[in-house]
Hints:
Blueprint: E1 5-6, E2 10-13, H1 20-27, H2 30-33, H3 44-56, H4 61-65, E3 69-74, E4 80-89, E5 94-101, H5 110-125, E6 130-136, H6 140-148, E7 152-159, E8 163-171, H7 172-176
Antiparallel strand pairs: 1-2, 2-3, 3-4, 4-5, 6-8, 7-8
Helix pairs in contact: 1-3
Amino acid sequence: xxxxxxxxxxxxxxxxxxxxxxxxxxxxxxxxxxxxxxxxxxxxxxxxxxxxxxxxxxxxxxxxxxxxxxxxxxxxxxxxxxxxxxxxxxxxxxxxxxxxxxxxxxxxxxxxxxxxxxxxxxxxxxxxxxxxxxxxxxxxxxxxxxxxxxxxxxxxxxxxxxxxxxxxxxxxxxxxxx
Length: 178
């Protein structure tokens, strides 16, 4: 299964080594990272190693589960906008969708458009019954994306035991009827 998808405006594809400067820029923005709980890359080389490991690791999401986070590229100018994708969580036996976009591209519907295509992949190619999105309680932008995708608030919880978060879910039937 090749993880490469398109929408009207976007290309979704696995990370490449050449994405390193963009991944570094994305994760170096405090506002982008505010609610993620992730640690920024220390430099471009760190981002390059991440990209290579993400696509080549035989135990990673892409090789093992044929899903993962994908770079989002705008067709018109090949700009790297951010990423979206699926992630299988073995410890809880569920799949979530996530997205992270550079601030300069917020508010253009890219996260919704790209993630809608990822959900189509989840339900059509993987025959999943449900997909979750875990969103920080104060990340209103990401909550709006989940809601635009017709995901419903299922419950609130403490992310990593300390951060207030919301779990949104959508079923295969809900997606097909949206």
